[in-house]
Write a structure and sequence with these properties.
Blueprint lengths: L1 H17 L1 H5 L3 E10 L3 E8 L7 E7 L10 H5 L7 H9 L2 H24 L7 E4 L3 E5 L18 H20 L2 E2 L8 E4 L2 E4 L6 E2 L6 H17 L8 H12 L2
Antiparallel strand pairs: 1-2, 2-3, 3-5, 4-5, 6-9, 7-8
Length: 251
Amino acid sequence: MYVLKEKTIARTSNLISELATFYDEGYIQGEPKLLKSGKEATVYCCRTDSLIDADWVAAKIYRPLNSRCFKNDAVYREGRVITDSRARRAVQNSSRKGRGMAFGMWIGHEFETLSTLHSHGADVPRPISLASSAMLMEYFGDEWTPAPRLADIEIDAKEASDLYRQILRNVEIGLSCHLVHGDLSEYNILYWKGEARIIDYPQAVDTLRNRNAYDLLERDIQRVTAYFAAYGLNSADPYRISRSLWAKYGK
């Protein structure tokens, strides 16, 4: 029992250390509550301090790049500009320093992407603060229940059409900002109070710089359409939708 208690204390201490920036900035207080643990990140619910007009926020702690589940990160990295020549060489050579830089770039990229999308009215978490290996952002849910993923619930068939249109509207907002999610599916769309909230943007690509952008857009829309087909939306054509949106917002 004593050993188990010591391990628990150590885990809590490590967790609080990773979130130290947010404690120091006065954004959060108390002990975080685990929401979700995945291959790319672990998400916690944290009680806020007086600086934020909310009771709870979400803290996303990223795992190192070598733990990511994407089979080919190069597809998503294409077109990302590293202006510092030394940093660029380090990342290209996959040195220890380069891997650390690349890790920070993934985190910073998601923060910047969410900032852009949120400012343009997209239904995404509002990013609040950034640390070396973590991001603090808006939380969806209440004190007892976090917003579930679409993959984990059954929605009302009458809602399906509205939710599908909402998600496509968010895809369109992304394209207007020259951004494609790149890994969109029912597994990173939250459902809360009758509306969808899209999460997980570290792999988002730039439509102007990444030649894979259209293929990733088409895959995003195909996955989402396949999910909603189970609710009777069989007439939606993901390929036509992709071509139409790309013609309007693509290169």
